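Support case: user asked for a sample of complex input and structure output to validate their parser. Sending the pair below.
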Amino acid sequence: MEIIDGGVTSPRGFKAAGVHSGVKYRSLDLGMLYSEVPARAFVGYTSNKVKSAPVQVMMSENSPFLQAIVINSGNANALTGRRGIEDAITMKKVAASELKLDPKTVGVMSTGLIGRFMDMHKVKYGISKAARELTSGREADAFLAEAVMTTDTIKKEVAVRIRLTDGTLATIAALSKGSGMIAPHMKVLHGTTLCMVTTDAVLSEKFAKTWGEILDDSMNMVTIDGDQSTNDTCALLANGKAGGKCADDDPIFIQALQKVMTDIARKIAIDGEGATKLIEVQVQGAETKEQARSAAMTILNSPLVKSAIFGSDPNYGRIMMALGNSDCKFRIEDVRLTIKGGDMEVPILDSGAPVFQEERSVEVVRMAMDNKEVTIIVDLGAGSASAVGWGCDLTYDYVRVNAEYAS
Amino acid sequence: MEIIDGGVTSPRGFKAAGVHSGVKYRSLDLGMLYSEVPARAFVGYTSNKVKSAPVQVMMSENSPFLQAIVINSGNANALTGRRGIEDAITMKKVAASELKLDPKTVGVMSTGLIGRFMDMHKVKYGISKAARELTSGREADAFLAEAVMTTDTIKKEVAVRIRLTDGTLATIAALSKGSGMIAPHMKVLHGTTLCMVTTDAVLSEKFAKTWGEILDDSMNMVTIDGDQSTNDTCALLANGKAGGKCADDDPIFIQALQKVMTDIARKIAIDGEGATKLIEVQVQGAETKEQARSAAMTILNSPLVKSAIFGSDPNYGRIMMALGNSDCKFRIEDVRLTIKGGDMEVPILDSGAPVFQEERSVEVVRMAMDNKEVTIIVDLGAGSASAVGWGCDLTYDYVRVNAEYAS
């Protein structure tokens, strides 16, 4: 597997564009992804009961093939009633007309403020402009990546090139936005993370199950704030332009896609609103995978754990408090807790009580926490299931960003 | 019902003390509550799977009568293994010996840092001192209230006097601490909120069910951070000194106790770590009470909702996002959302979309949010069940307090 400097247009046959439509004051706010041929589409959507208009429209159509996706930032088109649905349908229609496609093969995604109607005059103008500017290459990737950003501070792209088992050279690339309102729990029908994954490998409809499993271990294990968005959508488009055999069960392909999605998940966590640190929680020795997931997510969502890590405050009791509130089963005497940071790996618990009791020895924990990436390893000693999740610290800047978002 | 300037020693036969034992550097850190006669005890404990040593000890004894409670702040005696259990038992024994009681009739509670062993030398000294200083009156109430505080900034006391149905004059009083790690879900066997409620009314063991229901509607509907403590304990002591008939089913008594517990719950929310505003969420028209509770708590726990209210940022879409992540059922078209603050009451939703779309009209929402107390009213239009919960905003000070707690 070769990690390449690439983006969503690196796989053969994909083009992209990002333009300024005027929904936002200044920055790019409307993007488009296009495949020269219809691509098999696997799409995961938010499980929030309040779903944005674009999510509702895409879920009801459930198209097995997509050839383009139109996406805007600045307005989530959520909580917009019947008018919002009409606007999402119009976005598809206008894009389809510009690209000479069947509207059913055009996907739509939105992100931004909830509860405001779209300014369709601007959006229509943007779609026409984007359709004319579709092209391949790193500049096109960058324009699309920028057009989908809201409070994001970094572009989130990953691309890998692989030689499949049958000898075919294929590429997988992913682009995601997402910085706040991030706790996706996306379920595949056929995460407001909006995520587009492109590949030129050949996939059949049967790949949906594997895609769901990969999402569960990657995007669905990221949490910034525990707040699942109304708009989460993650679309994998496979246009088959690489040729070769169907890669559904090719371990090389699956492993490469897992790598791409895990990297994207980590990038989302690193760029959490106001975040200064990435927190990775590894849960081992759980009775079931579901319990391991619950333990990881409960620790990652605890504001007390998150703010302690922000301050490198060695208050590890909070990690155990959070663990105790999760849905996992364990005997406290069997639990092993380790905190890793930089080149330090500090064991915390012994037989249900912390190893460190003295101020001086607690300093070791503080030193491990005082790193850009802090890893919490919990071994429950109850079974053999495991899970890994990603989150970030809770900072002054998180509060600042979210106390004045709509203003 | 008369609200009086009183505390836990206002009901007849109760005494209290609060002293400095040295667990904390400077402030009062050890308290004691005492009843002249054994009092029927109804105790609710945390449902966190990681339970502090005092909680484990009290749950295993499950004493139907208590005559004293010893309580310390500065150290939670949680995550302290076998040694912690022994220390909690020692606290009971020392207090029993000083007061000449059976250790089974002495309760124990702790709050403070998790994961450090108790300095029992200091604690024993404090218990002896407190036992000698037991007395009644507002000064005693105040010393005990101060001894249980951690990050609390205000004392949380409520007292009412009532004339029961049989003519008996009875008093109910409550004292609570709790500012962070607050999302109690306390279950009665016979909410680290530590809460002591005293009354001189006569109660039988059958009152446990009613007490559980009152806890569910008061303490268990408060959330500061969604993090349920390892130490939550809420004890109601009824010593019967007022005489008269058993008040188990007396609506006057039940209503007065509800009032006391609701007031205490609100005080905890107002004094949430770093809080500048009280948020009350009223959910109406739910299918079931459980769904109404879930809706209220999910909204109150959303960091995006909490930080928007801190900044008076009219981002009401976040309230609906949170509602959509709760366990309650509704059709978005049927939901009515209202935000109240000061003397303003602003309707938000109409047929699934916000009433306000223009910047100028959104200003009305900002004005309502710019108050010390903000009420969010959600009518789901799905049934007739309801629930009320309390929380607070998420502020810079919350982050500050919790980034340097152990330091």
